[in-house]
Amino acid sequence: MTAPRTTDRTRRHACDTYRGPTILVEFDHWRILIDPTFDPPGRRYPFALGTSSVKTRGPALQPHELGRVDLILVSHDHHADNLDRAGRALLPRATHVLTTASGARRLNAANTQGLTTGQTIALTMDGKPRLNITATPCRHGPPLSRAIVGDVIGFAIRGEGAADVALWVTGDTVLCRAVLRTARNLDVDVAIVNAGGVGFPLTGPLKYTMTGVDAVRLITELAPRVALAAHYDGWSHFRDGEEGMRHAVDGAPASTRALIRWLPDGEPVDI
């Protein structure tokens, strides 16, 4: 286990989850929306190689209830559980949209910029401190699967002049060496960790995101001030789901359990 770091972490965030990966974060006067998904439940969405998934839970709130959105982070644009039709309709409302380089080419919008893994961009808006955002690695499936599953990134957000990471969004990823290495090298205040243990009958035992056990291991390595579990339910392709996430947290060391917060749907929470 990695010992908790000694960095002075005095910043606070307001977080509001809309279910799935969709979370609104307020930090340093920025309103940041992560992976907007606001379609109603019931529809089946296609993925790669003939796989598909049904959305089983709708959003906790509707897009018109969001208020101002300064920045939208899209870990990947080509899977509907991270960016659906209603989410796409929201993109023009934001001053800035960040996603993968390939996703930015597909979205082809003036407010959208693409990042490759390891790339950092500085964002500015009038009346707000600068944000420095680095794309962190993801592997959304087994080794050598990127050509099939496509590009995915996470986001490490630093405030102006800060060395530590105010917010790390893991994105959709399995627990691989690159993600563990990132966790060991970052000093993180708040981490949003996507789990769910995605799998499909067509591809057998292969995993496409972290299970609850994987997420707990990552949080233990990372030792942030706060870890928020996300994107672990609401779709039929989550094999591990909420039950697996909660079971893993219940079985985690007490020091790790103390780091993890569960966000209530549609209610703002100070973190």
Automatic annotation (TrEMBL):
Q: Which Pfam families match?
A: Lactamase_B_2
For the keyword Hydrolase, the answer is yes
Give start and end of each Metallo-beta-lactamase domain.
31-232
**Gene3D superfamilies, per this entry?**
Ribonuclease Z/Hydroxyacylglutathione hydrolase-like
Keywords linked to the UniProt accession: Hydrolase
**InterPro entries registered for this protein in UniProt:** Metallo-B-lactamas, RibonucZ/Hydroxyglut_hydro, UPF0173_UPF0282_UlaG_hydrolase
Source superkingdom:
Bacteria
The entry lists its GO molecular-function terms as: hydrolase activity
Which PANTHER family does the entry mention?
L-ASCORBATE-6-PHOSPHATE LACTONASE ULAG-RELATED (PTHR43546:SF9), UPF0173 METAL-DEPENDENT HYDROLASE MJ1163-RELATED (PTHR43546)
Q: What is this protein called?
A: MBL fold metallo-hydrolase
Q: Which organism is it from?
A: Microbacterium saccharophilum
